[in-house]
Structure formats: structure tokens, C-alpha cells
Design goal:
The protein has helices at residues 3-15, 17-20, 23-26, 33-51, 53-57, 59-62, 73-78, 87-102, 113-127, 163-170, 204-212, 219-226, 230-243, and strands spanning 147-150, 155-161, 182-191, 197-201, 246-249. By secondary structure, the protein is mainly α. β3 and β4 form a beta hairpin. The relative contact order is 0.11.
Length: 252
């Protein structure tokens, strides 16, 4: 086994708990099992700290730090089945974090707290999934006969409060809990093929395209069924493609 293959094996062991328990890994005795487990836990610590940073900023009010869930029996019970980067595992861990933060008793009202937790949970889940480490594949190149398709894992999130206006304030020093306007907002959360997660406000045109883009409908079909002018459709598709919410496929 060459150095690259050995490196890939160790990385897989850090990310994949079932693999760490397999004879294929254990018989190699490449690393101390306790240290591997500690580092695997740290990888989840990093993700939780990143995606639940707004809840962490409110921990003085809620009494709950999101990453504290890693020290609880509920997380230890899940660890043997977790695969870092798996969307199912991300969904499971994110739900555990949300339940932990919700279990606190805020010392001051946070009206948008439920919206915030849904937003952070969605961010963590959307970020998970397989990566693409090479340039465009032939099946995803935009050509004249290409059909747009909504990328799996992309989420539309309907919120009661206008979270985008309050999120930056939460990360700055504050004494009273920052307020968010009571204003319905629909957000689209998507991840590019290379792992970057982005958020944008979803217009009616975006929602229509997301519902209709199935990889089979042509651009003419989409424009007609969504009730959009060609120029409006092209501009919306360009934005969705850059966001990572839509890709183009030449296969039917």
C-alpha cells in the first residue's frame, strides 16, 4: 500500500465510525484507537461550532452551548453509526444539537429562536454529502440541449422572522438580545459541487424553477410552465447555478 492509499485509509477511519470497528481497520493497528476516537469527535466539534455559531452567541441567554452535546450520553449512543460527511449523520447530529439547545430555559425572550435553530440545522445538513474533486463532467456541462435539474440536498426554508437582518448583529457585542423583524422570509440554502454552502432569499421565480427543474424539461418547457420570460428564466437559472442549487444535465 502506497502513502496516498494509507492516508486515504486513515482519513476514512476518522470519518467513518462503522469502518473504525471493522476488522479491515483494526487488524492494521495503524493508530491508537482512543486517539482516533478523540479526533473523530473533534471533527464533529468543528462542524457544530461552525454551523451553530449564532446559537453559541446566544448561549448566555439560553444556558446551552451547542457543542456541549458532544459530552452527553445521547451523542455517545449515536457515535458507532456516524459517518462524517453523510447527510443522514449530519441530520441526526444536527437534530441532537437542536434538542439540546431547546432544552434550556432562556433568561430573556428570543422570539425568533425556533427559526434560528431551523436555519442552523439546515445549514449543517445541506453542507453534508459527497464532494466532486474534478472539473465539470460531460453530463453536467451546460449545452444547447441541457436540461436544468434541482440539486439534491438543496433546501427551501420558510421563516416567520427576517433572520438575515439579525444574524450579523448576533456576532457583534450586544447587551440586549438583538431583534428580528416579524416578516415572512423564504430562504434557499444550497451547496456548490465543491462544498461551499450559500444562502439567498428565494423569489417566486426561484420557487417555481426549483419545483419544475427535474432534469427532463427543456428551457422552453420551464419558461412556459413557470410563466417566465426567457431573459428572466436565464438570469434566475444563472443565479441558481452559481449558488449550487441547479445543475445542467444532457441525459433524459
Amino acid at each position: 500500500m502506497n502513502d496516498r492509499a494509507l492516508q486515504d485509509l486513515v482519513i476514512r477511519a476518522l470519518a467513518d465510525a462503522p469502518f473504525r470497528r471493522s476488522p479491515e481497520w483494526r487488524q492494521r493497528a495503524l493508530a491508537d484507537p482512543d486517539r482516533v476516537e478523540q479526533f473523530a469527535r473533534f471533527l464533529y466539534f468543528e462542524r457544530i461550532v461552525h454551523f451553530f455559531k449564532y446559537s453559541a452567541a446566544l448561549s448566555g441567554i439560553t444556558g446551552r452551548r451547542p457543542e456541549a452535546v458532544l459530552g452527553q450520553p445521547s451523542f455517545d449512543a449515536l457515535r458507532p453509526a456516524l459517518v462524517l460527511g453523510s447527510r443522514d449523520s449530519a441530520r441526526t447530529v444536527a437534530a441532537l444539537v437542536v434538542a439540546h439547545v431547546k432544552s434550556g430555559r432562556p433568561s430573556a425572550p428570543i422570539p425568533y429562536h425556533a427559526d434560528l435553530l431551523r436555519y442552523e440545522e439546515s445549514m449543517m445538513v445541506v453542507e453534508a454529502g459527497p464532494r466532486v474533486w474534478r472539473e465539470r463532467e460531460n453530463g453536467e456541462r451546460k449545452t444547447d440541449d441541457a436540461a436544468p435539474q434541482t440539486v439534491a440536498g438543496t433546501e427551501l426554508l420558510d421563516l416567520t422572522y427576517d433572520l438575515p437582518t439579525v444574524l450579523p448583529q448576533l456576532l457583534r457585542p450586544w447587551t440586549a438580545v438583538p431583534e428580528a423583524p416579524v416578516r415572512p422570509v423564504r430562504l434557499i440554502i444550497a451547496r456548490s459541487r465543491y462544498g461551499r454552502v450559500a444562502v439567498a432569499k428565494a423569489t417566486d421565480a426561484i420557487v417555481s424553477i426549483m419545483d419544475l427543474a427535474d432534469g427532463r424539461k427543456t428551457l422552453e418547457d420551464l419558461a412556459r410552465e413557470a410563466g417566465l420570460r426567457p431573459a428572466e428564466l436565464q438570469a434566475t437559472l444563472q443565479g441558481l447555478t452559481e449558488l449550487g442549487a441547479v445543475r445542467f444535465s444532457t441525459g433524459s
